[in-house]
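Hey, can you fold this one?
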Amino acid sequence: MKNNITVKYIDELVREYIPKNHDKVSLAIEYSLFTGGKRFRPMLLLQTAKAVGKRLTDNAKRLACALEYIHTYSLIHDDLPSMDNDDLRRGKRSCHTQYGEAAAILAGDALLNLAAETLFRGNFNSKNYREACAYMFLMSGSTGMIHGQNLDLFTETKSIDDANQVALHKTGDLIRAAIVCGALVAGATEEETKIFDQIAINLGIAYQVVDDLLDADKCERSFLDIMTVEGCRNYVKRLNDEVMALCDKLPYDLQFIRDFSLENLNRNR
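Sure. Predicted structure:
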């Protein structure tokens, strides 16, 4: 199964670094990590690393796992009563509904810490690894994903620029972490990394637009507050066209990015 990047393969990697405890918080962590996620963020990271470097290193695998830990912690906290107050996640009881609010908070905290632990055990002598680790936490921190959550909770969406900022940070920054960290750890040049970042920005915004279309019956409808359904669909198509054009500028086989972009355009969940 070497280098065969499937959901099952990523599940095995993600499980490898989880502490083998059996307390309530550990059960909440495992429950939240394995509730049927698509794993597309670590998949994008590993596929990018493989496209650029022709192989998967231990550092790339660590980055992919850390990214999934960060993503999962954000979902646990996002579902809490003080945030979105969601009782379900992926059709199952959310972490705080299943294990209680205190255990859910601790599980989220532990996953964020586990991301750091996993990365600190990597090979910092490897080219760009330190930079990739720093970029991942930049994209998930107070100027990245958390900033996006702040915008989503405490600001109004009055323009396309407002909606783009929420989408860029709330959703797009972890996609940026996936693609840019994958490129960095595999040795992409500075100019190539900038193009990968622009690809990820477009993908992230497009992903959030489609999410808004699929969740049109909910209160959080950032793009639908300022665009029609048809306008949103056309916007996703324009973003996809930009992704395709940017892929053409790079000397790698990026069919997986093209496929992801088209699948996002047509997804129904």
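The chain has a mean pLDDT of 94. Let me know if you want another pass with a different chain boundary.
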